[in-house]
Amino acid sequence: MHAFIQLMVVAAQTNSRDLAALLSLKNSWQNVPTSWVGTDPCGGWAGIYKCNGSRVINILLTNMNLMGQLSGDIGSLSELQTLDLSSNKQMTGRLPQEIGSLKKLVTLTLTGCSFFGTIPDSLGSLEQLVYLSLNSNKFTGNIPNSFGNLSNLYYLDLTDNQLEGSIPVSDETVPGLDMLLQTKHFHFGKNNLSGTIPPKLFSSNMSLIHVFFDNNNLTGSIPSTLGLVQTLEAVRFDRNSLSGPLPKNLNDLTNVTDLYLSNNNVTGPIPNLTGMNSLSYVDVSNNSFDVSDVPAWISSLQTLTILMMEHTQLQGPIPFDLFRLPHIQTVLLSHNKLNGTLNISTTYAKRIDLQNNTITDFQTTGGYNATILLEGNPFCKKAENIAGSYCSSSSSNSTYSIPPPTICSHVSCSVDQVPNPNCNCVYPYKATLIFRAISNLDLGNTSYYVALEKSLMQTFDSYELPVDSVSLGNPFMDSFGYFGLSLEVFPSGGDRFNQTEMLSLGFVLTNLTYNPPKLFGPFYFIATTYAESNKPLHNGIIIGATIGGSVLLLLSVLAGLYAFHQKKKADRAFQNNPFAHWNANMKNGGFPQLQAARCFSFEELKKSTNNFSEANVVGSGGHGKVFRGTLSTGQLIAIKRARADSLQGGHEFKTEIELLSRVHHKNLVSLVGFCFEQREQILVYEYIQNGSLMDSLSGKSEFRLDWMMRLKVALGTARGLAYLHEHANPPIIHRDIKSSNILLDVSLNAKVADFGLSKPKVDSERAYVTTQVKGTPGYLDPEYYMTQQLTKKSDVYSFGVVMLELITARRPIERGKYIVRVIKNAIDEAKDLYNLHEILDPAIDLGTKLKGLEKFVKLSMRCVEESRAKRPTMSEVVKEIENIMQLAGMTPNIAKSTSTSTSYEEASKGGCHRGYIDDAFDSPSVLQMIKLK
């Protein structure tokens, strides 16, 4: 799930429609994050992530103590892919039908809120939806039939609501859940669903691993079609009103580890489950099976850990081998008619409950450490046994506990604080973990909780979250058969987590990001409201003087605060204007020395584009439009003009000018000049005729790239990045490498563009730059996201994703699938083309021998290693691509490009010092362009 956890912020002026929707949501909510100020959510509002250009892509606001309703304005965020409002208990009201307008939504998580009313049918129109979690709310009404249209759905969780009616399946006119062939998880427990289980619900074409319909009002029998879904691993139909015999083909479910069928009215014989050789947890208690002996096949289940068959009409002696199963921990056979002599010479079990049977004798050698309960048997009526430990009164529902840490018992902390393992008082992040299947867990064994704590820490560490330690406690089994634990996560480096860290913790614990040890089974979590990082507040004024003095003091303070506020406002205005310092220098006759970059007047650029005619538009983006222009000298230029209403991007604008004015390489787009007159923000580049690599791979351009061309594009891009990393002074990290920022000139030479997010690496002592996470979804280095430590290897990761685009022509995230994971799962080095035939771009011409492809794939996968330490440097990448090109029969020109700069000439007009750029690039060799058929 590392790919799924890429939370990123891309600097851009938020789209006006998205801004209006978010402002409306903000006005309808209380307790919004303190960072929700200003009119640019993409520029720093907490929880607004992955702004693609100017459009909002992800909203992640887990456990932010939000209060209010989700209005129909949410439907205006048409590019939204993720909406997570989980653990906001005071989010209430009905889900608006307009949520169905979010056609690109991939993840919708509303766990642990208080939404009510019917689930809108419009959710069924979200065809890109992969993860849908509406559990632990107050939804009523039926499960919408329209859910059957969600053909990409992987996870469906409606647990713990008040849903009613029958389970919807399709017919000739309406869809149904039987159509969800790709879905792995059906979680519908703790509702009021009624009626029978439709046989049509299940088929051999389904991919389900979890089927949970526990704690409902379902009637009738379990259909035999359930046995057709051989991918199943956990099944829960307990606590319903099911009747009739169990289907005989349950025996075909060889992958099922957890089988919950208790508390129903099931009749007929106990089925033979010999074939279910993966079974670990079996609970068929409290049913009306035919009277029978303990089935002999139970002793053949070598993986069995927990056996629960209370109130099941069992009779006769207990098989000797049952207690000798290698993994057995718990055997509950109370309230039956078991008789004869109980013989236990040795066992691995920790708890054996045989209360209220007709056992007359007990023979043992004592070679075990188990709790054995025999109260209510004739054995315990014998005088010599009445006071024995086996016959003492004990409830079959034991309580469980985890010993609390005692090392900090001497520490006294304030309200809401808890001593961490170092005995420092901190504010832990608190949550309750709810497990829906506990598999082979011995609830009284503390070693299992230690293993769970260890796995949590390993997960937090893998994402480099600032977690010092975790603590589990208060284990409980609720009346629904769900197992719960309280969780405390302690911060490191301070007494509390900040807002960003809170959101990261919430993200890790939801959306299937964290996978607990298998013995704990599937889970969800509900977080407790967390104290904000700017608390506690301090008192500013203590009332204690005379009334007259207090008034005077108050007036003085108000005047001071007003003056201070005005000064700060002016300071912020100056700081937010990246050219304020430049303008000041201009008034004094000075100007920053920008190498080889010309300062254009607005009128000059206006004339070159025929008054910025739409006919000259060659592209558009989050900041505005790109125009083709022609200077009076006849030189073609590309003019990137920010929108008139866009002030965001000013710092990026200035950064791009300063960086590009001093770096020169034939694989970097050349900056010709700029203009910032009349509140305009305009960058002027050399004109690149053939658009972006993304255009070529998607088929938007007029030509296609063969294998040799793609290698040359990769090499050119790598050389440009290697120059930035190793020859620029100071080194530069691009931070936004993607196929749309790689342009192709008339000879199809690759040129890296768009340096608006770039960062110079000034500190030579450190390998990283600490900075706010920015980038583009699908390309972002996961270590950079988690640590906020930007390194050269972050560009290497992004370049690796571009390499995968080159061979597949797929976008990094397409239909909810991440290209890196798709390739990793498909690779088989033992097969031709590494088993990637179905994934490679057919336009490469797979009929020809793609020499070097396997080495290219290997190199790309090294670049996208999750650990940056395992990634190569860009200079190493350049050498390897050169070797691949030689292997493919083409000798690359490995002569290094040199930096050049021009002298400065002062212009005589316009108040700008103008530098005229010379052609500083080698003439590239002409590549053959292959036209599309």
Give a description of the structure.
ATP binds at residue 640. GO terms for molecular function: ATP binding; protein serine/threonine kinase activity. Its EC number is 2.7.11.1. The chain is of the alpha/beta class and 933 residues long. The protein has 14 helices and 51 strands. The two termini are 40 Å apart. Among the domains are: 418-527, 2-Layer Sandwich (Alpha-Beta Plaits); 578-687 and 901-933, 2-Layer Sandwich (Phosphorylase Kinase, domain 1); 691-897, Orthogonal Bundle (Transferase(Phosphotransferase), domain 1). Strands 2-3-5-7-9-11-13-15-17-19-21-23-25-27-29 form a 15-stranded mixed beta sheet, with no helix packed on it. Strands 36-40-41-39-38-37 form a 6-stranded mixed beta sheet. The protein has a 5-stranded mixed beta sheet with strand order 1-4-6-8-10. It is 19% helix and 20% strand.
Write a short abstract of this structure.
The protein is α/β, with parallel strands linked by helices and 933 residues long. This is non-specific serine/threonine protein kinase.
Write the layout of secondary structure elements.
Blueprint: H1 16-28, E1 29-30, E2 48-49, E3 58-60, E4 67-69, E5 82-84, E6 90-94, E7 107-109, E8 114-118, E9 131-133, E10 138-140, E11 155-157, E12 164-165, E13 185-187, E14 192-196, E15 210-212, E16 217-219, E17 234-236, E18 243-244, E19 258-260, E20 265-266, E21 281-283, E22 292-293, E23 306-308, E24 314-316, E25 330-332, E26 337-346, E27 351-353, E28 358-367, E29 371-373, E30 418-419, E31 425-426, E32 429-435, H2 446-462, E33 467-477, E34 483-491, H3 499-508, E35 523-527, H4 547-576, H5 580-587, E36 598-599, H6 602-608, E37 617-620, E38 624-630, E39 636-642, H7 650-660, E40 671-675, E41 682-686, H8 693-698, E42 703-704, H9 707-726, E43 732-733, E44 742-744, E45 750-752, E46 759-760, E47 769-770, H10 782-787, E48 789-790, H11 792-808, E49 813-814, E50 817-818, H12 819-826, H13 853-863, H14 874-887, E51 930-931
Parallel strand pairs: 3-5, 4-6, 5-7, 6-8, 7-9, 8-10, 9-11, 11-13, 12-14, 13-15, 14-16, 15-17, 17-19, 18-20, 19-21, 21-23, 22-24, 23-25, 24-26, 25-27, 26-28, 27-29, 36-40
Antiparallel strand pairs: 1-4, 2-3, 30-31, 32-34, 32-35, 33-34, 37-38, 38-39, 39-41, 40-41, 42-51, 43-46, 44-45, 47-48, 49-50
Helix pairs in contact: 9-11, 9-14, 11-13, 13-14
